[in-house]
Amino acid sequence: MKIVHVASELFPYIKTGGLADAVGALSAAFADNGHEVSVFIPGYRAVLEHKDAAAAERRLRLKIEMGDQYLSGDVRVFSPRANLKVYLICREEFFDRRSPYGNGERDYEDNADRFIFFCKGVVEMLRIGDLQADIVHCHDWQAAVLPVLLRDAERRHRLTLALKTIFTIHNIAFQGLFPAKVFARTNLPDELYHIDGLEYYSQVNLLKGGILFSDRVTTVSPRYAREIQTPEFGCGLDGVVQTRVDDIVGLLNGVDSAVWNPAADALLPARYSAVNLSGKQVCRTELLKRAGFATDFKGPIFGMVCRLTEQKGVDFVLENRDFFLKENVRLVVLGSGDKRMEDELRELAAVVPHQVFLCAKLDEEMSHLIEAGSDFFVMPSVFEPCGLNQMYSQVYGTLPIVSRVGGLVDTVVDADERPAAGTGLMCDPSTVSLRDALQRALVLFADKPRYAAVQQRAMAKDFSWKIAAAAYEQMYQESL
Ligand code: ADP
Question: Which of 160, 209, 397, 434 is least surrounded by CB atoms within 10 angstroms?
Answer without folding.
Answer: 160
